[in-house]
Amino acid sequence: MSDQHSHQNFETRAIHAGNTADPLTGAVVPPIYQVSTYKQDGVGGLRGGYEYSRSANPTRTALEENLAALEGGRRGLAFASGLAAEDCLLRTLLAPGDHVVIPNDAYGGTFRLFAKVVERWGVDFSVANTSDIDSVRDAVNDRTKLIWVETPSNPLLGITDIEAVAGVARQAGVKLVVDNTFASPYLQQPLALGADVVVHSLTKYMGGHSDVVGGALVTADEALGEELAYHQNAMGAVAGPFDSWIVLRGIKTLAVRMDRHSENATKIVEMLTQHPKVTQVLYPGLPEHPGHEVAAKQMRSFGGMISFRVEGGEAAAVEVCNRAQLFTLGESLGGVESLIEHPGRMTHASVAGSALEVPADLVRLSVGIENVEDLLADLRQALG
Ligand SMILES: Cc1ncc(COP(=O)(O)O)c(C=O)c1O
């Protein structure tokens, strides 16, 4: 993060970091530099430091500066998707023969990347319950290069103590990577708790309007940031100018959106915990959630994601999803509109039969920022 923004509060940084007025026109919002190349004043005479938009583009730079400022990191990098960011990170940090520790609850696509892509290149992994620090410590061996954490996790809303795992990582001399997609930097700041790299699917809360796919990495360290920037250009899965611009726009309202997501989710959890058809509610804001105390310590509030289990197994869970009307049946999360899905058959179908398999009676909600009374009425009718 540049010194210019380090003294500012989150909401101010979200609006101003990277968002300097256009030097040519004074436009208060960075323009969409929809351009691939830049005129040089003589060979090597770059006007603004830009030569080709895969290497760097001013709109993407604006977003990358903003991301670094929001996570309190040294370097932000924006990619074409969350998985593109993860791929770049893994192929930068790992080599054949290396070992990684992954959580027993994570986004299915992240697991698929480890199990079906990275493993083929000679990198093996162990699955740990990252909510249990001993399980993480036991999973580390002398070939381990990184520990991967997702907190809150997708879709079981498990909580990992980032500071405690950072201690294990430091002791073992390995990198700690935290997927901060569910919390967003407004609710949780993994780098300040000792993580080396933060990963984001910008598609979710950062974009916030279900209208863009994007990903990001933010590093605590300048040198690792440089190395990743080199690989970002070498691999090429960069965020385009329009996608960068629309995420930058979404981020300006991140703080107010997250406050409302959390507020609405709290009221929905209250209703679900009392509903006779609901057998379990998974939400870190609940005092009986095993990660509640850690979540209260490391998160500003508990976020907009809720999972719950219903009486009647898979058929009943699918029925609830199908009956919802205001909650749109769809994958993804983090938009202003509420979504409902069945992880076992939708977002997490790729983990079926693995250590990450999710319960068949599970329903996941991404609670939007609509009026909560309308959301409650819809869920009541969907539960029947
Ligand atoms: C927690 C988490 N991380 C990473 C990703 C991957 O991001 P993307 O879909 O933008 O590639 C997702 C997508 O759902 C996710 O939920």
UniProtKB/TrEMBL annotation:
The modification N6-(pyridoxal phosphate)lysine is found at K204. Its cofactor is pyridoxal 5'-phosphate. One of its GO terms (cellular component) is cytoplasm. GO terms for molecular function: cystathionine gamma-lyase activity; cystathionine gamma-synthase activity; pyridoxal phosphate binding. It catalyses: O-succinyl-L-homoserine + L-cysteine = L,L-cystathionine + succinate + H(+). Its EC number is 2.5.1.48. Keywords: Pyridoxal phosphate. This is Cystathionine gamma-synthase.
